[in-house]
């Protein structure tokens, strides 16, 4: 009976995938940087509204195939929000109880979305507490701790099988510069950057993977110092990315370089992009695009032409109380005006 339920559950997830189309690739022209094209892989169009939908699907399939999830198994995940929203969606699809362990300051909209899909939220005071508390709950409830931070890089088939890297290169085939000079990705678990970096090498592309990191995150220092034991007592203010420790899924060896992005730059960029696209995006997207624009400027100074691809991770509608609240930004991020002045007239949407 257990085997039959697992087979049915996997088919249910695969059928859900078949009902979903691939995400769009949006091209932004850069008048200030002639001959350089910037592309946004719009992951906000997934059923649960973010890049983490891909990860949640892979984590469930991985756990089901390993026999870790059975009928009725409670699912516990440590998450600042988007992964938990997506996992709550798949848990409901399979009729499983779901609990998200998250910092108490997580955006209200994300909490509401988790609860919409039938999940429950369990709060801790600091992001560093989510790991131990998730393990404790899983043991107490005889459940399964999904542990995105450990399994993100191994749950996804980086060789192909419709992963995000394969999708990007397939969608770029008809573009003026089909092989990107750079792919820019921020790190949360490190799983997506691991998939991208491995795929690039496996396929023999000349594309360089650049990982951007916000303030109060240790990924950048770990990469620069070649040490994954660095920890921080602070939490990133850019939800979904940046960590107080180097997560097991973070693979520095597949990264070509890293850029540290000020939080003010990340938030300023989403205000600028809203005017360009006519819609709101999350702050992690701002981190990605700021890094991509720095690279475009470097290419321009070298007299190069080409393409850069980065990710639009999620919609800004989840952050109306935070990043799109001027008072919250002033009190929690700081003065973004200097960065806003650097952004106008860089891009046009095509």
From TrEMBL:
UniProt KW keywords: Cytoplasm, Lyase, Pyridoxal phosphate
GO biological process, one term: L-cysteine catabolic process to pyruvate
Record HAMAP family: Cds1
Top-tier EC class: lyase
UniProt subcellular location: Cytoplasm
Chain positions with N6-(pyridoxal phosphate)lysine modification: 52
Swiss-Prot/TrEMBL cofactor(s): pyridoxal 5'-phosphate
Keyword Coiled coil: no
Domain of life of the organism encoding this protein: Bacteria
Span of domain Tryptophan synthase beta chain-like PALP: 22-314
A single MF term (Gene Ontology): lyase activity
Encoding gene per record: cysK1
Catalytic activity: L-cysteine + H2O = hydrogen sulfide + pyruvate + NH4(+) + H(+); O-acetyl-L-serine + hydrogen sulfide = L-cysteine + acetate
InterPro entries registered for this protein in UniProt: Cds1, Cys_Synth/Cystath_Beta-Synth, TrpB-like_PALP, TrpB-like_PALP_sf
EC number annotated for this UniProt entry: 4.4.1.1
Organism whose genome encodes this protein: Photorhabdus asymbiotica subsp. asymbiotica (strain ATCC 43949 / 3105-77) (Xenorhabdus luminescens (strain 2))
Similarity section: Belongs to the cysteine synthase/cystathionine beta-synthase family. Cds1 subfamily.
Pfam families: PALP (PF00291)
Descriptive protein name: L-cysteine desulfhydrase Cds1
Pathway: Amino-acid biosynthesis; L-cysteine biosynthesis; L-cysteine from L-serine: step 2/2
The UniProt record lists the keyword Lyase: yes
Entry function: A cysteine desulfhydrase that generates hydrogen sulfide, H(2)S. The H(2)S produced by this enzyme may modulate central metabolism. A cysteine desulfhydrase that generates hydrogen sulfide, H(2)S. The H(2)S produced by this enzyme stimulates respiration in M.tuberculosis, mediated primarily via cytochrome bd with a lesser contribution from cytochrome bc1/aa3. H(2)S modulates the balance between respiration and glycolysis, and also contributes to redox homeostasis. Probably eliminates toxic levels of Cys (which can induce oxidative stress).
A GO cellular component annotation in the UniProt record: cytoplasm
